[in-house]
Amino acid sequence: MPDTMPAFNPALAALLARASVPARMLRDPGPDDAAIDLAVAAALRAPDHGGLRPWRFVVVRGEARAALGEVLADSLARRAPDSSPDRLALERAKPLRAPVVIVAGAALRPQHPVPVWEQEATAAAGVMNLMNALDAQGQGAIWLSSAALRDDAVKAALGFAAGDALLGWIYAGTPAADRPRPVRPAPDGFWREWRGADDMA
Ligand SMILES: Cc1cc2nc3c(=O)[nH]c(=O)nc-3n(C[C@H](O)[C@H](O)[C@H](O)COP(=O)(O)O)c2cc1C
C-alpha cells in the first residue's frame, strides 16, 4: 500500500488493499445471501451507457457446484473428445475449489446504438464492483475464465439466454490466512498529463 494512502478513507484503503485470492485458498463460509445481495447492488452502480443494465449473475454453491462440474466436464468432452480421464476429472472438480462460484454474465444487445464493447465494459465494471464489495465484506474472490464460457451448451445449462455472454467464473469464500498480498507497481508509470499538441512533438 502506498505510504501516502489516506488512512482515514476506508473505501480507498479497501480499494488499494484488494487482491485476488487463489481459488484453492477460498474457504467456508462463502458469501451468504445478504453479502451477495450487497455485492450485486454494488455491481449495479457500474457506469451504464444507455441504461441497458446488462449485469446477470448466477450463484452456484453447495451440491450445485458438483452439478456445474459435470456441465464443465461434458463441455470439455464435447469440445475436446480426446481429453484424458484425468483432464476431465480436473475440469469436473474445478467448481469444488471454493464454497461459492458466481457466474458473471452480460445480456448483450447487438442491434442497440451503444456498441457491444461498451455493454461488455459496463458488465465487466459491474463484476469489479461486485468483487470489491465482496472484499469489503471480508470475502476473498478471484475472476477466472475458461473456454467453457464460450460454449452455448454451458450457457443454456446455467439458464442464460442465447444473447448473453459469459464473462467469467467468480470464485468466492473466506480467504486463507496465508493468502498472497502481491506488491503493486507504482502508479506513476501508468499515467501522464497531456499539455497540448506540443507535447507530441
Ligand atoms: C476477464 C478475466 C479473466 C481472467 N481469467 C483468469 C484465468 O482463467 N486464470 C487465472 O489464473 N487468472 C485469470 N485472471 C486474472 C485473475 O483474476 C487475477 O487478476 C490475477 O490472478 C492477479 O491477481 P490480482 O487481481 O490480485 O492482481 C482473469 C482476469 C480477468 C479480468
Which properties best describe this structure?
single chain; 201 residues; alpha+beta; NADH Oxidase; five-stranded antiparallel sheet; 6 helices; 5 strands; binds flavin mononucleotide; EC 1.-.-.-; flavoprotein; NADP; Nitroreductase
Give me the secondary-structure topology.
Blueprint: H1 10-17, E1 26-27, H2 33-43, E2 55-61, H3 64-79, H4 85-93, E3 100-107, H5 116-136, E4 140-144, H6 152-157, E5 164-175
Bound molecules: flavin mononucleotide (FMN).
Flavin mononucleotide (FMN) is lined by residues 19-20, 142-145, 168, 182.
General description of the model:
- By secondary structure, the protein is of the alpha+beta class.
- The protein has a domain at 23-60 and 98-175: 3-Layer(aba) Sandwich (NADH Oxidase).
- It is built from 6 helices and 5 strands; from the N terminus they run αβαβααβαβαβ.
- Strands 1, 2, 3, 4 and 5 form a 5-stranded antiparallel beta sheet that branches.
- α2 packs across α5.
- Flavin mononucleotide binds at residues 19-20, 142-145, 168, 182.
- InterPro entries: NAD(P)H_nitroreductase (IPR052530), Nitroreductase (IPR029479), Nitroreductase-like (IPR000415), YdjA-like (IPR026021).
- This is Putative NAD(P)H nitroreductase.
- GO terms for molecular function: oxidoreductase activity.
